[in-house]
Amino acid sequence: MNTRVPKVRRRKRILVGCAAAAMLALSGCRATADLVSYDLPAQSARYTFETTTNGATTVWNYTSAKPAKNDAPEHNPCLGTVLGDNMAACRPEPLIFLRYDLDLAVDNTAKAGDTHEIKITGYYQERLGTLPKVTSLKTEVSFDGGTTWRHTSVEKDGKNTFTTEIKHPKREQAAKGVALRITATDSEGNTVKQTLPTAYKLR
Questions:
Q1: Which partner from 17, 78, 89, 177 sits 20 to 30 angstroms from 104, CA to CA?
Q2: What is the fold, at CATH topology level, of the domain defined by 10-202?
Q3: Residue 50: pLDDT above 50?
Q4: DSSP E strands: which ranges in 9-78?
């Protein structure tokens, strides 16, 4: 996706994202991910990027500034460099991605009426510069398809990793499964909010 910005000095930026938000949410991006580039004004500004796939919604708010040099890793080069039509400096955007360890059974379920622990790790696209740190993470859970949400307690569990405990109701009280809504913030003020309408089912 290329967004044209008329009469403004442009800079090339690059975003590596997974084809499906659900795969991105649960397993993280891979080296074979899709490559998307777009142009932004040269001056620093705040941006919102949103994607929805198979009901899973991710909204990023981040600050993007003109790169002082080409910060794109060799294995994720600038799209203009690959195509040979733009030699402008580029680098990945500072988007927070989320990786989940849901600790589920082989059928992707968890036990009803029990306390269940999950781990959530924030990470970034590979860059040549210093990466921000995920400083806070908030989790919310819903058992009625997203009509009502309740906060769960969160504890930091290592670098960019957080643990939360979810008290499961009886199976019939969560017929639509367990929905998760995660909000994370990093040391540069970038945020991500990800909603998984059915993260897993109860058994």
A1: 17
A2: Immunoglobulin-like (2.60.40)
A3: yes
A4: 10-17, 34-41, 45-53, 56-64
